[in-house]
């Protein structure tokens, strides 16, 4: 990878020329409209072939490695749902020992990555993740967040949003689906005091690849929380896979930011927000919501945006503008 000119568009940071080499290969079994492939492909373009991927049970694991085939052109290890952080810690420690003994060139940079879903991170794998952070292992932890246990039947997870209908939190006459709010995993990771934490969205690839690079350069653990659209779980047409992710950011439902050595920075400002109903209406899992429940979700987002602007010290995420169209024509931004 080599640095290119400053990107003159929406972004504040340098653009990068990514290599032509593909390390996440085509032919996988991911659903049409699933953006896990977008995340994995760009992650490996940034990190390169000297990367070891630890992949706990989840959508990515069952869809990209079906014996005897694999879509990963790098060393890859499947581990149980709950021990991604522990296994990656062991690999990172072993590499240190092998370098000290002269088995591996001590100057060789080998990336150790955990590529896990929200279930394997925010719920079942949380203990191993927290321990990895606490011990300071140099591991890049990438959490692709499709907001549920999607490959095992669309059960709710700790990151399922309020009001989403899931098989273990179905919408009914008395409850609007899931009744809890998303677990703030990036904030929880940052509370461990690790060097680098960021949120990203595959709809904004430049922002995402920049954060992969920053994570690789961190001198200790790093954590990337990446929103990932899911066709069967979110219930949208596959052609809207990127549109729905754009609406997540355009409505303030999802804010792209980074915390670099404790310094908080919003990397993708939104001068004016679209109403959250634009994001919700595109998905079948929210179709049952009543107007007052949509207003309640909007109120939570407004509160979170206010808090982010307070932390930054200026208005980086603007107010809701009801006049904005939900679907912005391509090229109109």
Your description of this structure?
The chain has 333 residues and is an alpha/beta fold. It contains eleven helices and twelve strands. Helix 1 crosses helix 7 (205-217) and helix 3 packs parallel to helix 5. The model is unreliable at 1-13 (pLDDT under 50).
In short:
This protein has 333 residues and is an alpha/beta fold.
Look at the structure and give the mean pLDDT. Answer: 93
**Largest sheet, spatial ordering of strands:** 6-3-7-8-10-9-11-12
Low-pLDDT stretches are 1-13
Instruction: Report the helical percentage.
Output: 25-40%
What coarse outline follows from CA principal-axis ratios?
globular
Number of strands: 12
Biggest β-sheet, characterized? 8 strands, mixed
Protein structure class = alpha/beta
Give the distance, in angstroms, between the N- and C-terminal Cα atoms: 28 Å
Strand content: 15-25%
- Number of helices in the DSSP assignment: 11
H-E string: EEHEHEEEHEHHEHEHEHHEEHH
Rg (CA only): 20 Å
Supply the key terms.
333 residues, disordered N terminus, 11 helices, alpha/beta, two-stranded antiparallel ribbon, 17% strand, 8-stranded mixed β-sheet
